[in-house]
């Protein structure tokens, strides 16, 4: 299963230029099996995604990109999230209480929105974006080093806000699933592998 785990749709992420229809169309053309919508501090697109997913017979998993006091963290498999900024640890604890899966986004990007060295300070985090489509390669490489050091799941994600970035980087999982709960279970219990679009297909990467 190939899935882009970090995409912003313009209805609730005001810095995005992407519609849901565009996201799914591009994902299908590039051979993805699912996409994730992780809008900024919002899961407002859940109902629309559920309806559209059935309409086009394509899995759309809705999570959230939460801006904690130490930086952005995506979460899937949660019904709610804090209505104000809280510490990264408090948000991670909130996700774990609900059985969700949380990932540090672009931890070393130079925008004051990544956990950076705080990756070593938090407990209960599950994954790290080692390939983030809006982050320079050298900073993704640092994220990969921390991911390995901390024995966390390696995640690939486009962080797309514009059409040309959708499905640039993705995550490989061993089984195709259609339901969010099955997706979250697989993230928790199976190996994840980051992959890069090469213009024709995807290359699984272990180093870069």
Account of the protein in words:
The protein is α/β, with parallel strands linked by helices. The protein has one domain (2-204): TIM Barrel. 26% of the residues lie in helices and 25% in strands. The protein is built from 5 helices and 11 strands. The chain has a 6-stranded mixed sheet with strand order 3-2-1-9-10-11. The protein has a 5-stranded mixed sheet with strand order 4-5-6-7-8. A hairpin with a 2-residue loop joins strand 4 (64-68) and strand 5 (71-76). The chain is globular, with a radius of gyration of 15 Å. The two termini are 22 Å apart. The mean pLDDT is 97.
Descriptive keywords:
208 residues; alpha/beta; TIM Barrel; six-stranded mixed β-sheet; five-stranded mixed β-sheet; 5 helices; globular
